[in-house]
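Page 37, top half.
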Amino acid sequence: MLGIKTLEIEVNGTLVKGSLQLNAKGAYQLDLLSPYVGPMFTFSFPKIYHALWEGHISEIDGFATSHLRTLFHKCENIKKEVPKFERELKEFWLELETISVLSPLEWNEKCMFLKKALQEGYMDVDTYEKTLNDLTIVMEKKYLEREKRCEVFLSQYLPEYSHLQNHFSWIHFCYELTEKKHLLLL
């Protein structure tokens, strides 16, 4: 990701923060940071800027701020719906945990481990490339499987939100709401 920038707005008296980044494919990713962590939205902008530099900031900020406001409102609305399917959500979360997808940090560690093995002569270039390619294919399949399952779950329990992108981030958000509620009861 390129050009990470933090955005802050106030919505109905609540401070809402998000991070905006440009990915290598030219799409912008907006991650909600506060008051809720996790939900994200990927969008394209009518013009592609390959860095978030001063000349284009206000135009992009306006677009992203609108999406950030929308993300916040979606979270507020989903928060009201989660208690209706909390038991099913917890069961689904346990099922999702059986699909082992590497986090970006774990993925980076694996890649660095393979690169170090190549540099230290434990594997040749062909083995390195094949191993990295095979690992990438397996991770993509697992990621897509998890994302598809999350999409189906959202369609079943929150059909009005099934159009959302990054389905896993929304399921994770819902699950975190149930866990926070549980901790507050202790």
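Page 37, bottom half:
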Amino acid sequence: MTFHEMNPTVKFVTVTCLMFGLAFMFNPWTPLAVFIGTLVLQSLFANVSWKRWGLFMIPFLLTAIGTLWTTLVFGKASSGEVVFVLFGNNVTEENVRLAVTLALRVLAFTALSLLFTLTTDPKRFVYSLMQQGKLSPKIAYSVFVGFRFFPILKHELMQLYETHALRGVRLETRLDHVRHVPKLLIPLLAGSIRQAERIAFSMEARAFTGDKRTTYEVVPVTRSDMLLASLLLLLFGVSVWIGIR
């Protein structure tokens, strides 16, 4: 029983509910408890590279620090005991409480988002949205085509660079590569249009018309999914209790 095996739609709805509930919590203890609890659940029920997690966390940690700083410096003046003076502004206990709450909320949102992102296969997520979320196959398969286009575009771009190099175009530095991009846009666009036409003909030849279709890969909702969702909801309930007691 892991978050990797959890039904993606159930996981998405649960995480979204937690984030929505956190938006209405204005004490620092609730987001702090959610952040720590999410890390504990992730370590117990997920196989995630913590090094990779830490790299993803860096920009959001900087965002949290920026939120803390700007709220302290530019926050609305409020009555209460002055804790310290910052750039001539009186920072009260209420200002510090609000700044810490917003910063911890950013970290809690990020932890929940990374829990979902790092443990969810995009393919299973789209299949699950079609089966449990009743997502239209037109939209679902459009997403699949979009995922497929990124490596194709990268491959064609590298081919264009190599073709131009064979014709004597020397690109010594990164700046040379950037300046050369406009000359590649038109052939890249033409190639993308050709690929889109081929995919459209291929889907039509396989009777893809957007009507109801059978499913080869079934993504069921199991007891384990409900148990993991209950653990996340229990975490939020305990965090709210810690914040209001």
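Margin note: The first strand starts at residue 82 and ends at 86.
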